[in-house]
Each structure stands twice: as structure tokens, then as C-alpha cells.
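Fold this sequence, please.
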Amino acid sequence: MRRLTLVSVLLAGATGAAIVVDLARPGLADPVREAVAVAAAPAQRVLAGWDDGELARLSEERNELAAQVDRLEARERDVVELDALARSSTVAAVDRRLLPARVVAFASGSSPVGSRTVTVDVGREDGVAPDQTVVSVDGLVGRVLRVAPRSADVLLLGDAQVVVGVRFGDEGALGDVQAGTPPELRPRGHGELTLTALGDSEIAVGDEVTTLGSPDDVPYVAGIPLGTVTDVDPDRGQLGRTAVVRPHVDTDTLDLVAVVTVADG
């Protein structure tokens, strides 16, 4: 290091001297300048560090290390999310085997397929079948609509085709939840659903809503958290009272989900 510093100082001094001579007698310093350039070339390579090939190799190694870090961080996120799912009330309610899946594509209701769906990275070869329930750490996501060998399309809660039988409130009153808005009631906000009670059951703000369940758990298993009542519509003499439900799952930001497959044991 001391030697390199000395070389740098000498080169700087020689360069300064050449500049002074050049100002005093133009052209006189040309031989000096050439001699300095020749002498400086090896030192400049040393001071610069490495040649282009070495820099390219180091850049490639740096990029590979950065990619490895990204993969490890993604794997760590998966472990955290899977642990959260395993500890969630969703799993406690389901009591079924859950097949983790990652959302890899999304189709809005205005797409050519005509339904609001997401595509997940598991399919028939993983044991997925149509009409199986799909959940996340927060609750109900939807149901499997179509299955390919290594992927599946999931019809989301909130699609116009989806009607889910539910229980709500402390007494477990019956009703259904869907995306439509009854006539003469205020339009629902983005993501909001309509709960319609069966009979004269009272609905209260704060009521928790869970899935009622289907025969043979197809397409919905019982007891999955679905949402919370946030507003109750005025009574207009309709057959069943209605209310606004805010789903627990934000289907616009889905990432890790799970397909409910077979019962344990």
C-alpha cells in the first residue's frame, strides 16, 4: 500500500510538471507526456483493481448471490405464511388436509372466461378436484372451478355466480351471502357482499359470518370464517333481513392459499 501511494505521488508530480512545461513552451512537453503515459499504464491498471474480464466475473458472482438471497427470502416468507396458516382459526375450523398453493394468475369478471378467478400452481396431479374449497389464513377464498394437471382455476368469493350458505351471530342463524345488491338498497362498496337472513332472524353489526357447509363438503366445508357484518339494511318488508358483509379475505391481494382436499384419517 505504501509503495502504491509513492507511485501515485510520483505520477501526480510528473503530470504536474508536464502541465507547467506545456504552458510555458507548447509542444516541449510532448516527449515528457508520452513517457509519463507509458510509465503510468501499469500503475493505473494496479490502481484500477482488475481488468474487464475480472470485473465481469465479479459482477456475475454478485448477481448470482443476489438471486440466491431473493430465493432464500421467498422461501422464508413461505415458511412464515404456512406457519401462520397452520395456526389460524381457518385450519382449526376445517379439520381437513390443506394443500398449500401459490396464486400465479388472475382474471377479472370482465375477462373472456366470464368469471372472477385466480390460477394456483397445484392441480390434478396434486390431488385437486373441481368444487373443493379454497381458503387462506384469513378465511374463505372460493372454490375450485377448473383443474389442469399442474394448475387449477379458483372461482372467488364475490363473483356474481357465487352464493354461499352461511351461519351468523351468536345463535348461528342461517342465511346466504352473495355479491348482488337487493333493489332499492344502497350499492355495495368494493369487495362488500350482501347477507340475506333466512326467515325473521335478526342481524347485528359485528356479527361474524361463517360457512354453513355443503353435503359431502362440496363445494364448501362448514365453519370457515367468511366475514363480518358492517351495516344492516333498513327493513323494507322483504322476506329476509339483509346486511352488508366485509369479507375477511381481500381477493385483490391473494398470494398463498390452500385447497381443502380430503378428511384426515
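The mean pLDDT is 80. DSSP finds four helices and twelve strands in the chain.
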